[in-house]
Amino acid sequence: MEERKWWHTATVYQVYPKSFKDSNGDGIGDLAGITEKLDYLQNLGITILWICPFFRSPEVDNGYDISDYMDINPKFGTMADMEKLIEEAGRRGISIIMDLVANHCSDQHRWFQEALKGKDNPYRNYFIWRDGKDGKAPNDLKAAFSLDAWQKDEKSGQYYFHQFAVEQPDLNWANPAMRHELYDMMNFWIGKGIKGFRMDVIELIGKDPDRKITANGPMLHPYIEEMARETFLGKNLFTVGECWNANPDETLRYTNGKELDMVFQFDHLVIDEGKNKFDILPFDFIKLKKTFRKWQEIFSDRGWYALVWDNHDLARIVSRYGDTERYWKESAKMLALTLHGMKGTPYVYEGEEIGMTNMDFENKSQLDDIESINFLEAEKEKGRDEKELLRLISLRGRDNARTPMQWDATRNAGFTSGKTTWLCMNPNYRSINVAAEENDPDSILCFYKTLIHMRKEGKYSELLVYGRFDMLMEDDEHIFMYTRTLGGRRLTVVSNWGGSEVEAPSVGNDDRIVLSNYRENGSVLKPYETRLYANC
Ligand code: GLC
Ligand code: CA
């Protein structure tokens, strides 16, 4: 059996600081707002809190463009607010992990401003510069957000490399001076009491743009090993890397003890995507199950898996794989149990626990996300209809996840006391909100609470954390079924992934239902019915 870690029984909660809770009425969430809601999080049962970037930033990509890693964005508060948040969280048994954006920074960062001064500047080599070819960019590499990956600097005539927005120049990891400045910064935050890192697009740091290698470059693992040694290794911290392109070998290497505790891997969330996230293909349920089975098997006795439906870059899961029209509550709970019953560490993104849904974006002015806006502009130019593009953005755009948290049914959902919010509220906050669910034992929120507590402590904790995973009925078109076993003890999860009734599969003789989203469970599975059986 694997070595036990303090975070094995944890569920991680992710906060997008701009949208969680505003404490001063300016319509923007902030650090003091998070502190206000720590009791809520403690009650939910989570013990790790990942907060998206709260550092100084011009916010071209909402804080993932950092202009000072060791200072707080004044919109979110002060260093004293951050220190208070860390302390108050610790008092409630909650460890804070920060978002480490190490692949790139903001063009407003002092390093880049210095680098722009000329080829001889000591900071020039913190970034990746190349001469053009025949008056054009060095090569045809593309960046995210519908852009070219090279940007010309008129002053020097050279191009710098960026894998995201033009305002997010890539850091040059080949430069040891740059790497050690980042390590110092990480140690600064460890000194402040943070308990780990979520590493933004960490798979890109070993890039080799001349050979057109971006993810999984040759130096990726040596860099991560060095970073681990210089900063978090042996300090009992928690680390997770964001790796969209990780294959099984890569992930096992990341989690071999010298690098990270786990990586995010998103195969189960792109199965219905074509050339990009807005190119939506029919949903293939069996492929989804095969994907989960594959990754559960890879991590059966080595490494560790991250269980994720939602984050700040993804559309809301209940709108994607559930049914918000007819079976909102049932399908949200079904998705929760299907995921939380598996082996790994579950992540809950703010609002997921109350069943927050996608938003209907009706015009461009409602959008904030650079990815969606750039997509809309680029496709409009190709002659596509704006209405249709907005429909696609309402299905998959990142702003779906970023509308403010819905706390209650009062104006602006209790997110702010102010009149406006930085991004529109989802109008369904009048019925979908924390206050409405908090005291309702049948709510999505209470269901999440049950799942989180079950994993953390009590009779089924060990089975949920360490039990062996086996997929059953993999070729069935409606049912998602698997077991978790340890010794002679067994849990079985059975979920109906559709809006029609299907015959319930047979389970072991001594299995009884310990959790479900219906009060009565018979010989058929009702729409989106989910059941957790135990033989112990
Ligand atoms: C990651 C973040 C995303 C950001 C990008 C660039 O994918 O999750 O929000 O835009 O990296 O930093
Ligand atoms: Ca505020």
Label the overall shape.
globular
Bound molecules: alpha-D-glucopyranose, calcium ion
Helix content: 25-40%
Kindly state the number of beta strands: 22
Oligomeric state as shown: single chain
- Structural class from helices and strands? alpha/beta
Number of helices, where a helix is a run of at least 4 consecutive DSSP H or I residues: 16
Description:
By secondary structure, the protein is an alpha/beta fold. Helices cover 28% and strands 16% of the residues. The chain is built from 16 helices and 22 strands. Strand 7 (142-143) and strand 8 (147-148) form a beta hairpin. The longest helix has 16 residues, at 176-191. The radius of gyration is 23 Å and the shape is globular. The mean pLDDT is 97.
What's the layout of helices and strands?
Elements: E1 12-15, H1 17-20, H2 31-36, H3 38-44, E2 48-51, E3 55-56, E4 68-72, H4 79-91, E5 95-100, H5 110-115, E6 129-130, E7 142-143, E8 147-148, E9 150-152, E10 159-161, H6 176-191, E11 196-199, H7 220-230, E12 238-242, H8 248-254, E13 262-264, H9 285-298, E14 306-307, H10 317-320, H11 328-340, E15 345-349, H12 370-381, H13 386-396, H14 434-438, H15 444-456, H16 461-466, E16 468-472, E17 479-486, E18 489-496, E19 502-503, E20 512-516, E21 524-525, E22 530-534
Parallel strand pairs: 1-2, 1-15, 2-5, 5-11, 11-12, 12-13, 14-15
Antiparallel strand pairs: 3-4, 6-10, 7-8, 9-10, 16-17, 17-18, 18-22, 19-21, 20-22
The structure holds alpha-D-glucopyranose and calcium ion.
Alpha-D-glucopyranose is lined by residues 61, 64, 101, 164, 200-201, 242, 312-313.
